[in-house]
Design brief:
Blueprint lengths: L1 E4 L14 H4 L7 E5 L2 H9 L7 E6 L6
Antiparallel strand pairs: 1-3, 2-3
């Protein structure tokens, strides 16, 4: 799972939650990560921090078939 979430004013405004159990089909996630990627940082710099997105990554266990 990979998604970009919008934040504003250098990340001071905006709250987002990701339902990891829904993303991983009721399984516990292997890893979660929220980071400001290079492109996220570039957008924040260009807009002087008014818009400062963060990228969310979630790794789920493989489903057995």
């Amino acid at each position: 799972y990979l998604d970009s979430k919008p934040f504003y004013l250098w990340g001071l405004s905006g709250e987002h939650r990701v339902d990891v159990l829904k993303v991983c089909n009721k399984n516990e996630p292997l890893q979660m990560q929220s980071q400001q990627t290079f492109s996220d940082g570039l957008l924040a710099l260009i807009t002087l921090g008014i818009y400062a997105p963060h990228t969310v990554k979630i790794w789920c266990p493989k489903e057995e078939s």
